[in-house]
Amino acid sequence: MVLSHGVSGSDESVHSTFASRYVRTSLPRFRMLEQSIPKEAAYQIINDELMLDGNPRLNLASFVTTWMEPECDKLIQASVNKNYVDMDEYPVTTELQNRCVNMIAHLFNAPLGESETAVGVGTVGSSEAIMLAGLAFKRRWQNKMRAAGKPCDKPNIVTGANVQVCWEKFARYFEVELKEVKLSDGYYIMDPSKAVDLVDENTICVAAILGSTLNGEFEDVKLLNDLLTEKNARTGWDTPIHVDAASGGFIAPFLYPELEWDFRLPLVKSINVSGHKYGLVYAGIGWCIWRSKEDLPDELIFHINYLGADQPTFTLNFSKGSSQVIAQYYQLIRLGFEGYKNIMENCQENAMVLKEGLEKTGRFNIVSKDNGVPLVAFSLKDSSRHNEFEISDFLRRFGWIVPAYTMPPDAQHVTVLRVVIREDFSRTLAERLVLDIEKVMHELDGLPARVANGGEDAAAAAASASEREMTKQRELNIKFRDDKGTQQASNTAFEGLVRRYFDTFEHRLRRGKSSKSRRPLHLQPSKANSAKSVQAPHTGCFEQTSHFTLRKSGQPSEDFDQVLGDSNGCWASYPKVYTHTQMDYAKGFDTRSTTGKEQGFASFGELKASEVCNASSSKSTKKQGFAA
Ligand SMILES: *Cc1c(COP(=O)(O)O)cnc(C)c1O
């Protein structure tokens, strides 16, 4: 769109904001506007579109801070124009970062003299901190192997399968093999003895998590330290430990001061923590602390002098804002040990209120532990009729954002809902959430079962959905996405349906090519021409089948823009839920509508949408940042 010249000046002053031409035409999505628009209009347009984001305070998926004191907000605002990297120009900001490093190192019991400075760095978050820590381990290991005249081209790192995605990134970006200890039913963290079994001469470190992303549970770092010490003595290696304390680093020192997980354990050489999680700062700050100078190889540190004096730096990027460092310093001095302890205790109590409320309903198993990061992870005792994804969806209507996800291997058949308790999640809200979950359960009880299974007993069917079958479904799913159209050899009822579905899909798409108008996709092959739209159970809104086609085809996100651009009410009101991933498609479209009326889509229910969804998205769910 190009705004035309020559509109009289009175245009802007005469029209009310929402009648001005700027809000009456749609903005281009791919190219810049040719002309400028008034600042008020730009503000209004952006502000209004952002209203459709979820409310961060109700986003219970995230560990990341969503509230700070107004005084700190002021400091943040006042420093948004300061580039952190200009250390010589902003020496005080640099000094504040160094003080934060010292305070956090002491909190983690680094072996430091009273006025000795600690070794550490402020980062954008734990992910950057973990890249840096991993690089330090890799380099130290390489140096050691080279000195011993041994090959150093096959480094590996040992973690639990429950690690946050940043470890997978580290492994891939920096070419280190990731050896994951598998989880098992009812045990969702890394088993230290299995981890030590995986350690070999090429292991650069074992990474333990203090506060598993999935259920908040602390891994047993002390036991890991003891077992590894023993193995090191036996083999002559000196495999070290890193603790990923992204969420637990600001919990354990206050709630469990006796718990030994930090530099009190000799093999722990570095620890990361997210300042923006329980460090209580807005998104954009993390910390990496090393035990001593020896643990951070010198050759990774760069010295720059073109900003003034010599400055050592060890970060992945160069420029960044200063506000988060200043905000962290504010929290550390404003709250002190006492303040942090009070806040963490309060979070813990609210977690217990929520946990007990959920237990009282009699419908859930709690899979988080009382000692750990204050969160409640829970799954349905009976998910044969309705599953956790539906609860998550239904809660959106009350404004709550509660993620549902499947556990990593070998516990991928377990689905959980997770509520992270942050500082700003008050008792009232905890109690309200319990009430709303009860309402959702009641509502779901009144609806037909999600999985249509041809008269079979639903519970029995769910129970018999063995793991092998799920793997098969996942493979099928992938296959059909990769090379749809190719005939598949197998002939289960499930596969037959999928095949029929895709055949029809391809067929319609080809036929529709010539037509300018939207290509109707008929979702139910046997009822071709009957389904022009499908109903989203959350909103009761109808979605054009062409939108569904776009998402189903797994095309990149421009399609989603296009869908949004059609300003279909149901899309607009649920932008987060309705991205066109396989998972969302399976979540959002169901065998029934909220009115209980069967839709044209119904037969697709035989695909066991929930399982297709679980199987195909378990990996991506993990990667899509529920962890954050
Ligand atoms: C959140 C989290 C991360 C990633 O941290 P960011 O600060 O978001 O980069 C890494 N590990 C664990 C255990 C986490 O919970």
UniProtKB/TrEMBL annotation:
| Catalysed conversion reaction | L-glutamate + H(+) = 4-aminobutanoate + CO2
Answer yes or no on keyword Lyase: yes
Cofactor(s) needed, names only, are:
pyridoxal 5'-phosphate
For the modification N6-(pyridoxal phosphate)lysine, which residues carry it?
Answer: K277
Where along the chain is composition biased (Basic residues)?
A: 509-521
One Gene Ontology CC term in the entry:
cytosol
The record's EC number reads 4.1.1.15
Q: Which UniProt keywords apply?
A: Decarboxylase, Lyase, Pyridoxal phosphate
GO BP, one example?
L-glutamate catabolic process
Enzyme class (EC, first level): lyase
Q: What is this protein called?
A: glutamate decarboxylase
Per the UniProt record, the lineage of the source organism begins with: Eukaryota, Viridiplantae, Streptophyta, Embryophyta, Tracheophyta
